[in-house]
Amino acid sequence: MRHNKKFNHLSRKSAHRQAMLANMTISLIMHKRIYTTLAKAKALRIYAEPIINRAKKADFNSMRVVFRDLQNKEAIKELFQVVGPKIMDRPGGYTRIIKTGTRLGDAAKTCFIELVDFNETMLAAKAEAPKKAATRRSRRSGKKAEAAPAAEAPVAEQPAAE
User: Fold this and answer.
1) Are the C-beta atoms of residues 33 and 112 closer than 8 Å to each other?
2) Which helix (H) or strand (E) holds 111?
3) Helix H or strand E encompassing 100
């Protein structure tokens, strides 16, 4: 029975799946963005987010715990020296999945998965966009606001005819 086993097995044995997710996490940390299928990206997000969260606390024990999972010194160095300081104030949600359509050969849904704080084009667009003032909208404000100035408009007095 498979009661309460909700993660995607990705048609692989456990050791193969763990190795694949570790390799994909290393690639994500090193390149900041990878192209893969949607199912793998969703499984990678579940695997990689706790590992990336460890980079906030840059102590020796956190490095050992991450190294246990990834087994790559260059990725650990990149994670704790480059990625960690950038995500320090973010409470979670370190990855973003952008769907790109279907693959031609097997019609698999494909996507990009990237680290949120490292997409230069989105960061530049966010910096350039002016912030709008927060407005409060309600049903009543529109009709009464338009009708009130028309009623209060001063009427020019005409001289009375004698």
Assistant:
1) yes
2) strand 109-115
3) strand 95-102
Q: Is the pTM of this model over 0.70?
A: yes
**Roughly how many angstroms between the first and final C-alpha of the chain, as a whole number?**
102
Check: CB of residue 44 under 8 Å from CB of residue 29.
no
For strands 33-37 and 109-115, give the pairing.
Answer: antiparallel
Residues 42, 77, 70, 43, Cα dihedral to 10°: 0
Give the model confidence (pLDDT) of 106-116 as tens digits: 999 999 999 99
Hey, CA dihedral for 103, 107, 112, 113, is it positive or negative?
negative
How far apart are alpha carbons 18 and 75 in whole angstroms? 17
Alpha-helical segments (H) within 6-109: 14-31, 38-53, 60-70, 73-78, 84-86
pLDDT at 156: 62
Per-residue b or e along 38-74, where b marks 16 or more CB atoms closer than 10 Å to that residue's CB: bebbbbbbebbeebbbbbbeeeeebbeebeebbebee
C-alpha pair distances (Å), 53 with each of 8, 61, 98:
22, 13, 21
Domains along the sequence of the chain with CATH: 14-121 (3.90.1030.10)
In tens, the pLDDT along 114-127 reads 999 898 887 788 78
